[in-house]
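ugh ok so i messed up the first submission bc i forgot one of the chains. this is the corrected input, ALL of the components this time, i swear. 387 residues overall. if the numbers dont match what u have on ur side tell me asap before i send this to the collaborators (the ones from the other lab, u know who)
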Amino acid sequence: MLLVALEQYTNQKQKNAATFTTMNNLFSKFGLRNVINEKAISNNITDKQFTNWYKYLMQQVIGYKVEKLDILFSKYTWSGGLQRIGQPEKLSFIVD
Amino acid sequence: MACNVLVNLKNYLLLLTEKHITQFAIIYLICFLANFGWSFYNGLLFSVLQPVFFLNKLDITGNIIMLSNIQHSLLQSQVVRIIFDLVYLLLPVLLILACIQNKKSQTFIAIITSLFSIIYNYYFSIMSFVSIEVFVGWMIVPLVLTARTPLKFYYAMHSVRIIFLIFFFSAAIWKIRAGGIFNIEQMSGILVSQHASVLLNSENIFSSLINYLVQHYKIAYVLYLISFVIELSFLTGLFTKKFDKFLIVLFCLFAFLNYLLMEINYFSWLPFLGCLYFSNLKVEEVPLAKQ
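and heres the new structure output, hopefully the right one now
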């Protein structure tokens, strides 16, 4: 859950917009153009709000209070074991 | 004479009655409550998770549900989240009470339970990122309990039984269509992507097992093949009910292995097994005029 939430938050803006476009095109074929409101299927969330929620989620999982949060992101490849590619980067949307 | 009595007794025992509807309902409720408790313990309820964003999907039904705009109320208000969880918990309880007392409202409550489960689980899926497939049992099984008479129950149960069988063997067909079954490294690749964090961060029995299976891809593939054969074997259910008890055992094995290896909880599909368990029971023949 902790990993998936980060990935989904990164993608949510772009994916929700793409889904809106596809769904709107589909609905318009049945004469229902603009039935879906883009605002209704978009998130209204700031990075700060996400960070606070993520800290709450982390506390639920690890069982103690999280005072300060920084997340480093790395890419890995499998070659007889997981091997890191490049240097870890700090996730910019975690603002604590 | 004694032989006739035995045959009559056997026929009576194989007859679908109101008692079986109640038994089915109780199995469903026990599974539901166990799953609800498990979800609460793991923080997988709206009121515990307190989601703050969602990821929309290319799902027509889902997007129709979202026209209601409930998603924003769920994201913003803890009261709405608690109400959602409570209604989700109480509807199956109400349904089973109506079923035990054979009340007229049973059909209505069963339909409402199914509809609310669709709405609840769709929203939960897009806010918690748990795949919607695992919630299917709670959406479909209540429909079996729309029936108040053995005859209607017979048809409802067998319809849901067929849907369940199709879910399963279509997964096997998909493994053929997508080509996974022809790729010996398929399972090892799935395990790496599913358990990357486990492989990276922990050293325990589970991570050692996953690491071993990833390294020994042929053994991992045998497990993939076993799951494929299990899924495909559900095809037999479309032609005969003889092996339904055996399919129950296969499903339990599948659910257990999935939970152990993939950490996917298919136990919410357990109520479907009621359809396989009672499938051999027959209904009393009713004259056409009486129907």
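quick check: The CA atoms of residues 45 and 62 of chain A lie 25 Å apart. that seems consistent at least. Helices of chain A lie at 2-29, 47-62.
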